[in-house]
Write a structure and sequence with these properties.
6-stranded antiparallel beta sheet
């Protein structure tokens, strides 16, 4: 799929789409075979559990608020204007523990099956189903830590 020329307006998603994924609102802004970019509203107290993209680099640019990203148990904090780099094959978890909502732009390259994953995850609340569907779309969630 080739990239379509044009402008995606600030309040709009591609094809009018917006998804609720793990309590976040994801709005697709650009989608081609080579890249997928979406805007995210991430409420305080929500997170994406540690996971791996085996065949995609991922990044986040913070617009407002703050996020914590964990790599190998080490917490990195990002604020407005910061870009978080998450290389393919590296486990990462994304947490909003800031006390306020965060607004950011995510991207992955290449797109892989992530756009399709968000379509099927829209509104899914069962963690086991989320893990199962994600594995079918090239995102591998890590098992919870042993207690």
């Amino acid at each position: 799929m080739a990239l379509d020329q044009g402008i995606t307006k600030a309040a709009d998603g591609l094809e009018g789409l917006s998804w609720n994924v793990v309590g976040h609102t994801y709005t697709p802004k650009l989608h081609s075979e080579n890249a997928f970019i979406w805007h995210a509203l991430i409420p305080d107290g929500t997170f994406v559990p540690p996971h791996i993209h085996p065949a995609q680099d991922e990044w986040i640019t913070l617009l407002e608020g703050a996020l914590e990203v964990e790599f190998d148990g080490i917490v990195h904090r990002a604020g407005p204007g910061d870009t978080v780099r998450m290389p393919m094959g590296v486990a990462h978890g994304i947490f909003n523990r800031s006390g306020a909502s965060s607004s950011c732009v995510f991207g992955v390259a290449p797109s892989g099956k992530l756009y399709e994953l968000f379509c099927v995850l829209d509104g899914v609340t069962d963690p086991e189903e989320l893990v199962r569907l994600s594995a079918l779309h090239e995102v591998d969630f890590l098992p919870p830590p042993a207690e």
